[in-house]
Amino acid sequence: MKIWKLVRDKIISKIIAQGEVANYRQANEAENPIAALDKLIEEAIEFKQTIEHSEGRARTIAEAADVQDAFDLCLKKLRISFSDVVEQQVVKNRECGGFEGMWLLEIGEE
Predict the structure, then answer these.
(1) Above 90 in pLDDT, residue 110?
(2) Crossing angle for the helix pair 57-77 and 32-52, to the nearest 10 degrees
(3) Dihedral of CA 39/41/42/48: which sign?
(4) What is the DSSP code (8-state) at residue 99?
(5) How many Å apart are CA 21 and CA 15, to the nearest integer?
(6) Residue 76: its pLDDT value, please?
(7) CB neighbour list of residue 40: distance below 8 Å, 6 or more residues apart
(8) Which of 4, 15, 32, 34 has the largest count of CB atoms under 10 Å?
């Protein structure tokens, strides 16, 4: 099964410069938010795998940067300001607390 994967802006030209063939297109306006969210999920999974496999601090920081880029893109495509996110974060932390305590809750059926 073939899928369309969001890639960084310079990736396609690098593929072509290496003499490889690239089938590509630009996402349309309706696809933008979902493509950005898919990229955020992909990058979050890669970030998690980097930590699980102890791939080193530099690699972990690089993956964290990818997550941040993808998150920023999501906000932009969904027309959400970072200040609105921070404002909501303050409300949630006041009402429910943050995640600093690292509490794990068992869920599901036995």
Answers:
(1) no
(2) 160
(3) positive
(4) S
(5) 7
(6) 97
(7) 67, 70, 71, 73, 74
(8) 32
Residues with Cβ within 8 Å of residue 82, at least 6 apart in sequence: 72, 75
Contact 47, 63 (CB under 8 A): yes
Nearest in space to 22 (alpha carbons), one of 36, 35, 10: 10
Which residues, other chains included, contact 76 with Cβ-Cβ below 8 Å and sequence gap of 6+? 36
Rounded-to-integer distance, Cα 19 and Cα 30, Å: 32
CA distance 106 to 28: 41
Per-residue pLDDT of 52-88, as tens digits, reads 999 999 999 999 999 999 999 999 999 999 999 999 9
Tokens of 30: 């309706």
Helix axes of 57-77 and 82-96: crossing angle, nearest 10 degrees: 110
User: CA-to-CA distance for 74 and 6, rounded, in angstroms?
Assistant: 12
